[in-house]
Structure formats: C-alpha cells, structure tokens
Write a structure and sequence with these properties.
By secondary structure, the chain is an alpha+beta fold. 16% of the residues lie in helices and 43% in strands. An eight-stranded antiparallel barrel has the order 1-3-2-8-5-7-6-4.
Length: 187
C-alpha cells in the first residue's frame, strides 16, 4: 500500500516568503480570510495567506515561521490526489471530534459528507486530512471554482443532512477559512 500524500499547511498574517523548499510535489499560495458563517462569505480583513505544500512521506516540511495556524497532515481521502491547478478558491474547514465518536465521524465523512460536497456544482476537488502535528486534528480542503459556492443552495443541502447535523454535535474547535487565487504579480 502506498504511503499517504503529506501536506504542509500554513496560514499567515502577511504575504509568505518566496518558495524555499525544493523537492515539493506542489506549492500553492492563496489570499483570503476567515469565513463569516452568517453570510457564508469571506472576511477579508485582516487578510490571511494560505500556503499549501505537498510532499512525499519522509520529506522535509515547509517552514515559514510565525504562522497563525499550521499543520503537517496525512491525506486520508481521496488517496494521493494532489491539489488541482486552475481553482479559483479554497475553502478550509478544520475540527476536532469527541474520541468516542471518532469512528462514526470518519465513516460519515468518507461515505456521505465528502461524496455529497464533491457533487456540488463548482467544487473541483474535496479532500480530507489527519494532522500529524498542529490542530485541530482533522482538516478538509475544498478546491472550488469560486468561494461563492459555499453560499449556494446546493452546498447547503449537501451540508445539512440529518447525519451531518448529528455529527456536528460531536465536533469542536471548528475553524473556517476561505482563500482566493492570487493574481500574478499582486499580493
């Protein structure tokens, strides 16, 4: 069985330094902010930057220093799929789960939640990860055409099933961020 794809995620409060980690499979930089859960839109101030660096198991990890949040992650769904090119945005959701509900939580996420959100128009790729370091323990990344997909009726229907609403009771330390692709030459 192949080893999982590893991901380094960093959320910064200023533009990141130039790429200083050779040998990565991919590195993407995004700009955005926290998510307003009432409007389902990005809170652009204060601005935040996301670095996604993908690498093989055992490679050196990306170091940026002074990250607001940072994780080293193993991809657990869908296998070794790397970040797509051409996405207009990334939605990042992280959470911890009550240990006595973790098995059901993972079953729900794998069999219902990711498949439902993957079918929402505008979602390019949905992936989930387990933290090796950093927290919360679970991270989901949704590469999307635009972060506006988060406010669509299709997303809300996929995100409000009875099983999902029940599982939400066992989640804590949830974070929500939205990021847009950087325009070349602009930071």
């Amino acid at each position: 069985m192949p080893l999982p794809l590893r991901l380094s995620l960093r959320i910064l409060d200023r533009p990141p330094p130039p790429d200083a980690a050779p040998g990565l499979l991919a590195r993407q930089v995004w700009q955005g902010g926290a998510t307003d859960l009432s409007t389902r839109r990005m809170i652009a101030h204060p601005p935040r930057w996301l670095i996604i660096a993908e690498h093989e198991f055992g490679q050196a990890v990306l170091k940026t220093g002074d990250a607001i949040k940072e994780w080293e992650l193993d991809q657990i769904l869908p296998g070794r799929q790397v970040s797509p090119s051409g996405a207009g945005g990334v939605i990042l959701v992280s959470m911890d789960v009550d240990p006595d509900r973790e098995e059901e939580f993972n079953d729900w996420y794998h069999t219902e939640h990711i498949p439902h959100l993957s079918r929402v128009p505008g979602v390019i790729l949905a992936r989930r990860f387990r933290a090796i370091s950093g927290g919360p323990r679970y991270v989901a990344l949704y590469h999307v055409e635009t972060t506006d997909v988060y406010a669509t009726p299709a997303w809300m229907v996929a995100n409000e099933t009875p099983w999902m609403l029940r599982m939400r009771r066992y989640q804590r330390n949830r974070t929500y961020f939205m990021f847009c692709a950087l325009v070349e030459g602009r930071h």
